[in-house]
Amino acid sequence: MAQEADLDLVEISPNAAPPVVKIIDYKKFLYEQKKRQKEMKAKAVKVIIKEIRFGPNTDDHDYEFKLKHAQKFISEGAKVKSYVFFKGRSILFKEKGHILLLKFAQALEEIATVESMPKMEGKRMIMMLAPKKKSK
Fold first, then answer.
1. Distance between CA atoms of 68 and 22, rounded to whole angstroms?
2. pTM of the entire structure?
3. Residues 6+ apart with CB under 8 A from 111
4. Of 13, 17, 89, 109, which is most buried with the most CB atoms under 10 A?
């Protein structure tokens, strides 16, 4: 039947009893499969993570400057990884870093949600912020 129709006989599931076969144009089938995979890949959301670094004694002007950058990143749809880097003896000011990150999260609460609260990882205290979902 496949030869009469000038098509290919393709084995769909060889382990079934009896084996399942289908009469199709195999090249066209491969082309459509590749096209579908390409569409799926194009629709996949690519997550961009931007980093913002603070020191435990970051000044108000620097804080405001970095806050504006974070607002821009979040409005573009990127996640923001903000962290306080402790150098040398500044590790003594962990609470300052914690307060700074919480203040940062509070300033961005209208446009972003806190994905992970501030936590220490080595010499850095890290907090993740993600853009809020737009309600329709």
1. 59
2. 0.62
3. 71, 74, 75, 131, 132
4. 109
If DSSP codes are grouped into helix, strand and coil, which group holds residue 31?
helix
Are the C-beta atoms of 112 and 132 separated by less than 8 Å?
Answer: yes
Say how far apart CA 81 and CA 46 lie, in whole Å: 16
Q: How far is CA 53 from the centre of its chain?
A: 19
The single residue listed with the structure tokens 């690519």 is 46
Distance CA 132, CA 115 (A): 10
Q: pLDDT band for position 134 (50/70/90)?
A: low
In angstroms, how far is CA 19 from the centroid of its own chain?
Answer: 42
What lies within 8 Å, CB to CB, of 70 at 6+ separation is 50, 52, 80, 82, 104, 108, 112, 129
CB 114 within 8 A of CB 129: yes
Pairing of strands 49-54, 79-85: parallel
pLDDT tens-digit map of 25-52: 889 989 999 999 999 988 877 788 999 9
